[in-house]
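Aggregate trends can hide what the representation actually does to any particular protein. This step matters because it turns folding into a mapping between discrete strings. For completeness, the protein is quoted in full, as a sequence line and a line of structure tokens:
=====
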Amino acid sequence: MRFFLVETVHSLIKFTKKFKSKYLSIVRRLGKKRSIIAIARILAETIYAMLKNNTRYIEKERMETVNPDKLYFKRLEELSLKKINNMRRVAKDSNVNGDSANLIYRGGIKDC
């Protein structure tokens, strides 16, 4: 079991912020090999708590990836709002009203 936990820890410290920051703080005090074992123990405790409480592990930093569609549309909406605001600014600077503002902004409506 220890072998599998240690192998898993190597991936965890590579891909998760929580375990990586914990690893880096322990490395300063104990060294690389001992800190890997310490993180493996933390992982074992986390797995035990998950099994005991029948819960899933969701890292706080990665909660957005639980629903990637929601994140995608949120970013798309932010980008479109930036482009609309740029169109309004260009139209205001060049004193153009209406649909002509769309044509001035980067050569046409298709880019919006």
The chain has five helices and no strands.
